[in-house]
Write a structure and sequence with these properties.
Residues 6-256 form the ABC transporter domain. This protein has 331 residues and is α/β, with parallel strands linked by helices. The protein is built from twelve helices and twelve strands. The strands form two sheets. The chain has an eight-stranded mixed sheet, with helices on both faces. Strands 2-1-4-5 form a four-stranded antiparallel sheet, covered by helices on one side. It binds adenosine-5'-diphosphate and magnesium ion (MG).
């Protein structure tokens, strides 16, 4: 296994509600190796964005980290002060979020937005930063890059804006790129182009990537490992091939079953998991997925399953499910 770059342990995040604090991220463990791409998947609302925002101290008001650690380059990101974090954010860690707070500034020219992190983190001169900004736009495949430097975001198409955001995320040659659903709003052709782009850059720059998506089909071609989140917990974590070959958690199987397959009849495409994830503060006792799970037994409604290696072996494939582990061990 490669050297670990980021190791998140027992991360817990709470939202302040009128009824008191409600847990939204409940003891997540994640690790990302050097040069590795980790895909994080799960339905909307399962805590993917908050997890990543918390690492960069970008959580919205009323939402706070209640426990855990996030070691990055020998330091716990969760204990850094704002100044220390600003030195890492956009520098050693690049990010592409859809959140308007962290996306493009509508009244600032593209070139200036690209140059800013270079001037701030790399102490480049204005002229050098502008030249590098032009190179970055070329790198992400924007035609006529030099002319685009003076454009404002609204003058570009959605796909081009997304590329600009990726260029900003990559500006300082980060060790880690965090991409939170960076292609969700784009059509499939452009999605595929952006995935190819990140794949190529990852190889060339040797960076690690955390790519968040609710789209398992998209992540299949990109990630080395996949971590499946449900209701703020990791329910399955495995190398990508193992996850697709032998999905163990009923939730993962539900997600896989809802991927449209080429040539499948429309009825087969629409299979998906019934029900919705629990709201913060309304988590059931036991396994959070039990109320929606076709295989749930009594133990699932009383006892939270631990994330444990499948079949009790020393394997990187881990699952948090009473039933799956028993079925697999028996097989
Ligand atoms: N600004 C916010 N205020 C209140 N609740 C929020 C806010 N952002 C997220 N949440 C809640 O936290 C949970 C996790 O959100 P999020 O991390 O954005 O999910 P995901 O990225 O997986 O879709 C959701 O249930 C959502 O309702
Ligand atoms: Mg999100």
């Amino acid at each position: 296994m490669s050297e670990t770059l980021l190791e998140v342990k027992d991360l817990t995040i709470e939202i302040a509600t009128r009824r008191g604090p409600a847990t939204v991220v409940d003891g997540i463990d994640l690790h990302v190796g050097k040069g590795e791409t980790l895909g994080i998947v799960g339905e909307s609302g399962c805590g993917k964005s908050l997890t990543m925002l918390s690492l960069l101290k970008l959580l919205p008001n009323k939402i706070r980290v209640a426990g855990g650690s996030a070691m990055f380059g020998g330091r716990d990101l969760l204990t850094l002060n704002n100044k220390e974090l600003r030195a890492i954010r956009g520098g050693r860690i690049g990010f592409v979020f859809q959140d308007p707070m962290t996306s493009l500034n509508p009244v600032m020219r593209i070139g200036d937005q690209l140059a800013e992190p270079l001037i701030h983190h790399r102490a480049m001169s204005k002229a050098a930063a502008r030249q590098r900004a032009g190179e970055l736009l070329k790198l992400v495949g924007i035609p006529g890059a030099e002319q685009r430097l003076d454009a404002y975001p609204h003058e570009l198409s959605g796909g081009m804006r997304q590329r600009v955001m990726i260029a900003i995320g990559l500006a300082c040659d980060p060790d880690l790129l965090i991409a939170d659903e960076p292609t969700t709003a784009l059509d499939v052709t452009i999605q595929a182009q952006i995935v190819d782009l990140v794949k190529g850059l990852r190889q060339r720059l040797g960076m690690s990537v955390v790519w968040i998506t609710h789209d398992l089909a998209l992540i299949a071609g990109l990630a080395d490992r996949i971590c499946v989140l449900y209701a703020g917990t990791v329910v399955e974590d495995a190398p990508v091939d193992q996850l697709f070959a032998e999905p163990a958690h009923p939730y993962t199987r539900g997600l896989l079953a809802s991927i449209p397959r080429m040539g499948a009849p429309d009825s087969a495409r629409l299979s998906s998991i019934g029900g919705t994830p629990p709201e913060p503060g309304r988590r059931p006792a036991g396994c959070p997925f039990a109320p929606r799970c076709p295989l749930a037994e009594d133990v699932c409604r009383t006892t939270v399953p631990a994330l444990a290696p499948l079949r009790g072996e020393a394997t990187p494939h881990r699952v948090a499910c009473h039933v799956a582990n028993r079925v697999m061990e028996a097989a």
